[in-house]
Amino acid sequence: MKLKVLALTAIVAFCAVLTAVAQDSGIVRILAIGNSFSEDALDYHFHGLCRAAGKKAVVGNLFIGGCSIDRHLHNARTDSAAYRFRRIGLDGNIVTVEKIRLSTALGSDDWDFVCFQQASGVSGKYASYGGLGSLISYVDSLSPDKTRFVWHQTWAYSPTSTHGGFKNYASDQRVMYDSIMVAGRRAMVDNKALSMIVPSGSAVQRAREAGGDPDLTRDGYHLHPLIGRYIAACAWFETIFGESVVGNSYIPEGMTAEQCRLAQESAHAACLNPFGERR
Questions:
Q1: What is the value of pTM for the model shown?
Q2: Under 8 Å between Cβ of 212 and 267
């Protein structure tokens, strides 16, 4: 019992810090209900882009590896302390709390944006999205009126990926990408509460095609630590702040100016055309 009390005390103290941060109206607050794909996109280069543009952001990332919409919904309904909660502060430093509930994370700050996404292997299978509306309703019941709900579009795997989910798309990158676009569009149409989309998947695919590298991953499905993650972060930056990421001065160490240009321009084009329609 004493351990439980100590753990609860730590979480309450952690949430108090977040609430204090929320009092600064110049800070944008983002909560991702996700998995390793939301970490790839938000935890590494997003804050560098923000600092370079004079923006202030706090990011909360609720993590369970490979977590699907249905599993998030189950955790919500059972109020399970199933998540690792990573808070990325204004300086980009990360504080981690283990075994936290979705309800606790939602109540820990005055979130401006809450993001949803599907597990990558079934992100192009719309039949797997059945619980999304209920999950959004649950989150809405615990969120301020001002909170905007965001759909995070995941990316297709490398052509050589050995991930088991790749078989859902005949192990074909283009088939997977097209399926993700169709499913994401339907999710936005069927769930009107989703008012924004972060087109990470479209941005990565554009960079693959423009740069001649169909991979841009580190293991066949998670993004490459430099250019892959940077592309997704650029898509997040432009979506959240509503201004072009092209010309942002933040370039991660080890990335070339040409790679930076490719990433920024691909993300910008994706934000203008999130589902990658050919014109």
A1: 0.91
A2: no
User: What's the CA gap between 122 and 129, in Å, rounded?
Assistant: 9
Euclidean distance between the first and the last CA atom of the chain, given in angstroms as a whole number: 62
- Cα 18–chain centre separation: 20
What distance lies between CA 20 and its chain's CA centroid?
A: 24
Q: What is the crossing angle of helices 227-241 and 257-272, to 10°?
A: 40
Helix (H, G, I), strand (E, B) or coil at 62: strand
Q: How far apart are CA 267 and CA 203, in angstroms?
A: 5
The encoded tokens of residue 222 equal 């998670």
Given a cut of 50, whether residue 185 has pLDDT beyond it is yes
Strand, helix or coil for residue 139: helix
The number of residues in the chain equals 279
Task: Please give the Cα distance from 122 to 165 (Å, whole number).
Answer: 7
Q: How far apart are CA 207 and CA 263, in angstroms?
A: 6
- Show Cβ contacts of residue 240 under 8 Å, excluding neighbours closer than 6 positions: 28, 30, 57, 113, 198
**Quick one: pLDDT at residue 93?**
87
Measuring CA to CA, which residue among 187, 90, 198 is closest to residue 152?
198
